[in-house]
Amino acid sequence: MTIPIRLQNALQQQAALAEKGIYFLPIRHHSPACAYATLQALQQLQPQHILIEAPRSFNRLIADLQHSDSQPPLAVLCQTEIIEQKTDAKKEDIGEQKQTRTAYFPFCDYSPEWVALRYAPKIAANVEFIDLAWTSQVVHEQQNVAEQTWQSRSLLQERYLAHSQYLQALAHKLHCRNHDEHWDHLFELKPKQQMQDWQAFFHEVLVWCAMSRLDYEDSVLEADASLIREQCMLHSILECNAQKNGKICVVTGGFHTLALIEELAAQLLTEKSTVNEKPKKIKKLKSADTDDQSWLIRYSFDRLDALNGYASGMPSPTFYQRCWQQLVDDSQNEIEQRQALTVELLSDFSKQLREQQILDSSFITVKNATEQAMGLAALRGHHLIGRFDLIDACQSSFVKGSLDDGQQAFQQLLRQILSGASLGQVVQSTQTPPLLAQVYELAKVHRFKLDETTTKRAKLDVFRNAKHRLRSRFLHLLDFLQVGFAKSVSGPDFLGGGRLHVLFEEWDYAWTPHVEAQLIELSELGNDLHRIAIQKLLQLKASFSQSGQGRSSHLAVQLLIRAALMGLQKQIPILFAEVEQYLPNDPDLDSVIQCGQKLLNLWTGKDFLAFQQQPELKALLKNVIPTALFLLSQLATPPEDQQQQILNQLLQLRSLAKQIQRILCIESSDSKIVGAETDFLAQFYQTLQRLHTDWQQLDLLAGAVDAFRFIDGNLSEHELQQSVQQHFGIGASPEYAVAYLAGMMQSAPELLLRYPVMAQLLNQLLDQWDDAAFVAILPDLRQAFTHFKPKETANFAEQVAQLNGVSSLEISQYSSEVSQAEMLQGVQLNQQLQQFLVEQNLQGWFA
Predict the structure, then answer these.
(1) Do residues 544 and 552 lie in contact, with contact meaning Cβ atoms separated by under 8 Å?
(2) pTM, whole model, 2 decimals?
(3) What are the tens digits of pLDDT across the range 137-165?
(4) Contact between 571 and 477 (Cβ < 8 Å)
(5) DSSP 8-state class, residue 88
(6) What ranges do the domains of the chain cover?
(7) Which of 756, 664, 739 is nearest to 697 (CA)?
(8) Cα(199)–Cα(250) distance, integer angstroms
(9) DSSP state of 493
(10) 104 φ, ψ to 5°?
(11) What is the side-by-side order of every strand in the sheet holding 456-461?
């Protein structure tokens, strides 16, 4: 390869700067080979200063990073707030809004930056981060990029390497799939002896990275803050060099090294550069170090893995972690070590394939895969077995047949084996937000496993085990605050009313860097988890008021349930008092009914929620039905489109009255005696009788009321037959009759089976209808019978068959037949339709 003139000059400038005591170590982030070469360089040079590419605002964390209690994988979490101008679709300014931007700067054992940080104290070297502060990077990108989609991102992005035309062409020439395999082929699989020659190694890395740098124009690099960052790093190098007190080692991403060498040479070397395309001077943006908020947090291998969306560095961190450990171990032959690692990983992979019932692998399969990996490495000219050699050997040895979507579980497991889920540790210091420390300690007290990021299942006996109830409240608390630590899988749902008699809760949980990031963001609201939850409850209550629902008894009891689930005991009396205040004055019948249902949920879980000593709950239950009946009595006659809604309310109200009455009877001294005050069912029917006459004549409601009045003993069988005769008899309107039937079916579908006289009246009515009337009313009739269960439908069909002299056998054997002529006519119509669509250029409709 002919090296471009610009790069040839830069290499000469690098050598000249080294003579002045400034050594550049161009690296790829999270590269074991670069980490090992960095270690060799530092051991030989023994520099007095080590300058590292990372935001300058991180300098206050260096002591924590170098502390022995801090063990990778870990990361610096950086957050900043910026004011974002909001515009509407017409690009008109509609105001400002604060936005939080988050980024991570990860470290693992084999990160060259980490190696430099941890080796520095051994040689008493001063360490300094020299990159532009994160806040300044955000501001610059915001000013230069018209539309930016922000998410939590990495500060070590490698998108330029991934999209470099030069690297893509070189990878193609070397028969590599992408720049990762290309990098492994050229650097990671070198013999250790060649990596020890760090000057030659970094020379090749610089050429590799610089050639990708030449693919991009300055305008592109300026837009994403690359140039302004390099100016900041250059300024730091010049400041350090001005001290004139020893060697300087500069550890930066190889993509930036070319520009730094050129700029530094222009400042320090007497002989000016003859580069024709020299990077332009960019006005230095003041570094907003004080605006950065940064903390040291635990990180994980699954978050570090590029295959899971991480934007920079090497993929498969568990594999490269093992490679790094072997690289720094001089006790064994490196080829034998890598072969042993391959066997170990393949054996573990085979075992998990069997345990998860993905594939039935054996010792022979592992042996074949090992031989394949060794053979592929030799074929590709690799000194050691590489990651791609291992992956290709697995796919060819374990999978029988072609690789397709059916092997998703296989591919996912292979990725997990190579990626891992190890979680690091960080020193507990004043740099750790108090809220994060509190939650972490509480999680340990409640015996949750926090040593890795894989999801685990917690099964809690919440009704019978006091410790499990405390664990449940902790999980509900974090779930309410949307921390992302745990997700409910099953258990009683006191808000929705489902599974209330289930004794166990099940939660899936995992302590991940995302959890720590969320807790750090919550730290702005305070340092105590319970106080923050109370603040959130108050904010939720305020949002109800803003939407005009501030005095809704239903929403008030929702807050009460949330507080009880989270164990906010001091708030419970206050919330009870608010429900007591809102319930009698709630103008919304739906809200009162829903409030009553949730109070019943609370009663069912009173032992779990510690409401045994809450007399307010019983008092609230007594007030639900009188309040709801008063609102019912004030309703005007509903129009036709609201009849179904009123019917649903009546059904819910009747069920509530029966359940609350039963509870109060059980709680009284004599459960057989129901006082007038608590005979809610009687009060319910009295209210119905006092309703407007026009309302009582609505067929849908009339059918429902007659059905449950009869079921509850409020209507005699003779009175029911008279009402049915009135709606189904001679002269009855088919439409009104079906509406009456639909109301009955929703309230008590079993009546049609229990009383044959109803089936007879319905059969007589249907016999009177002509074909046009039957077809018109058929959809409503079919919908009415959907309230039958399948077995009930079969039983009713037999009754109707007997009334019409048809045997049940004939019904079961009946089938609709299509004649040959009808089938041919259908084919002909289909062909005509297709031809019409083609003529109208609508072929896409065929799909």
Answers:
(1) yes
(2) 0.68
(3) 888 776 665 444 444 556 555 666 666 78
(4) no
(5) -
(6) 5-85+97-157+217-280, 317-419, 434-527, 818-847
(7) 739
(8) 14
(9) B
(10) -120, 140
(11) 456-461, 504-509, 486-490
